[in-house]
Every structure is written in structure tokens, then in C-alpha cells.
Amino acid sequence: MTLKEFIIPAVDIKEGKAVRLFKGNPNAVKVYGENPVDIAKLWEEKGAKRLHIVDLDGAFEGKPKNYKIVESIVKNLSIPIEFGGGLRSFEAVKHIFEMGVEKVVIGSLAYQNQKEFEKIVSYFSDKVILGIDAKDGKVAIKGWLEKIQYTPLEFAKKFEEYPIWGYLYTDVNRDGALVGPNIEGTKYLAENLSKPIIASGGVSSLEDVKKLYEIKNCGISGVVVGKAIYEGKINLEELN
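Below the sequence we write its predicted C-alpha cells.
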């Protein structure tokens, strides 16, 4: 895997626009584009090999709200797309897959309704990524608004035997803050779990990406990057 393949650009959608939040705060929004489809196409043109889409409205409201935008992105791009945000029922997940999304990220539902989560992963085995959003050392759900009693590793271990693809680990306190990713936390999870980990949150430079890339053999399969790409701190076109 090349460095360019390791990077997964993020397109976060809120109220129909491409945005980034600061540390998961729904009131700390920066708009980067009026049309998320154009942003997604731009990242593909610059060489992105896969894309990470988040429906922030869905994450906060409990069901996806930006289906049409997601569908348009899938139709206009040829690279694989993973999607998360408000997927809290089998029907919502089925609808997203019918659009052509390759993988889905599910976090809150796994905690709130384990039976429904089991149904989804048995039906769509190896296409589900368990979202582990960490806040102050504990897992956060419902759009990062509610912390539960599990540490990231404890939460992940509950689902190790499920036929999921792997895990997306986000340090919410670093997300959108350009302070560097939680490399120690990501490495710790990767070394203690049998399935791949995608890192997320805080990437501020290519150096941050390289630090994760250097330890990819412990089970880290990629890193989601948002603000650092939007603000030109990482240029996809310059990478091999």
C-alpha cells in the first residue's frame, strides 16, 4: 500500500454542505464547499483511492438525512466509498448499500441495539466497519454527545468474533483540531485486535500520516484525513 492509498479523504455533510466540525461540536462548523459532490470529485481527481463520507445531520438526528447527496457522489465517482452517520437500522444500511456504497461505519447501533447490529453484520458480512469514537478515554455515541462506560478496546473486543471488516477509531478530542492523531491509542488498539483499524482525528500534516504509515504492519490500514487536506497542509497530487 502506497502513502496515497493509505490516506482516506473525508467529506462531512451538514445541511447539504461540505463541512468540518471542531472536536465533534455541532456548533463549531466550518464550511468548505457548498456542494459536497464537487468536493468528492475533486479528491478523486487529485488521486484519492477511496473516500470517507459522514452524514453529520444523520449522526445527530439518528437517521441519514443526505441520501440524495450520497447517491450523487456514488454515481459521479469510480473509487470505493465508505459511509457513516445515523445508520441505526437494517433498512437504513440496506438503502445505503443499494446506492453503491462499498462499506458502512456503524457505532451507536452496535451499543444500543446489538440484535439489529448482528442482523446487519450477518447479512452484509465484511462490509461493516465498527465505529469507535473515543472521548476522554471512553466511547462516545449518538453523534459523540453521550459517553458510555466502555474504553475503546473493551468496546471493540465485544465484536471481535462478529464478521465485520474492522474498526474506525476516532479520537473526537482531536478531530478537526489539527493537533496530530492519537498514534499511541491507535497502535494499542491495532496490536490488541485481530481485524484492521482505520485511524481518524487530528491529522495536521503529512508527517502525521507518515508516523501512522510506518506502523501500518501492526494492523492499521489507513487514516481518514479532513481539514489537513481542505486547508492544503497535505496535497494528494504530490504523493505516489
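Residues 36-45 form the longest helix (10 residues).
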